[in-house]
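---------- Forwarded message ----------

FYI, see the ABC transporter ATP-binding protein record below. Original note from H. follows.
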Amino acid sequence: MAAPVGTGKREQQPERELRTSGVTVRFAGLTACEDIDLAVRPGEILGLIGPNGAGKTTLTNVLTGFQRHAGAVVVDGRDVTGWSPQRLSRIGVRRTFQNVRLFAGMTVAENLEAAALGVGLSRAAARRSTAGLLERFDLMAIAGSEATALPYGLERRLGIARALVGDPRYVVLDEPAAGLDEEESDELLARLRAVPDQYGCGLVVIEHDMRLIMRLCDRLHVIDHGRTIATGDPAQVRADPAVIEAYLGSAAAGKALAHG
Ligand SMILES: Nc1ncnc2c1ncn2[C@@H]1O[C@H](COP(=O)(O)OP(=O)(O)OP(=O)(O)O)[C@@H](O)[C@H]1O
Ligand SMILES: [Mg+2]
């Protein structure tokens, strides 16, 4: 990296990444996450995978301020350990939930606008952000519809759009394809693929849909029983004996891993 002009010496630039360092979470006798080091950079799509109960949602909760833990969470060089979800959201660390949680009694557009105001945007900026997301996520035609009355696929699409209000730096998506059929999953893949370029953010995607994950992600981080068992690009990870072993218990996932 070139030295900044005028300083006369090389200055250390903070690494642009969302990172956990030695993160451990224990629930009364059960270790849900153990000593996890995970990192995602802006513009990158990282898949966080592992069998049921591996600790993926717990780690999502850690990354987004919902779960107390040992170890550290660092955003672009800043230690944000212990920050609240609201504070993290305001500096651009966002998430979706495994179960969609839309604001009831509001339209599609109002859901986006409320989320934008919630992360600190002005009314005008919230409106701009909403208009952009309605267009990019093909929600314009249903902007005035009651959000919680939408068909499931659209509800999930809106949930993802809502996490992107105000150009976040990092977004964690917890099972965005859950319950979608193959066609809807392919459509989601195309949409998510475009997100880092359109929004400049880093994505962490948690999914059991291996067909989606293998096509979508630049890199994978695999956990099992709370521990990291593999990291690497999709081709490396799907050939990793520890990963195959972890998935053997789940016939469907194992098959998808082999053929996805
Ligand atoms: N609040 C909690 N209290 C006690 N145990 C919990 C709590 N939350 C999660 N766990 C346990 O921690 C482990 C990890 O759960 P987690 O929900 O993070 O897994 P996951 O990888 O997201 O699973 P899934 O793929 O089924 O969503 C599980 O054994 C779960 O039962
Ligand atoms: Mg989960």
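H. also flagged this: The longest strand covers residues 30-40.
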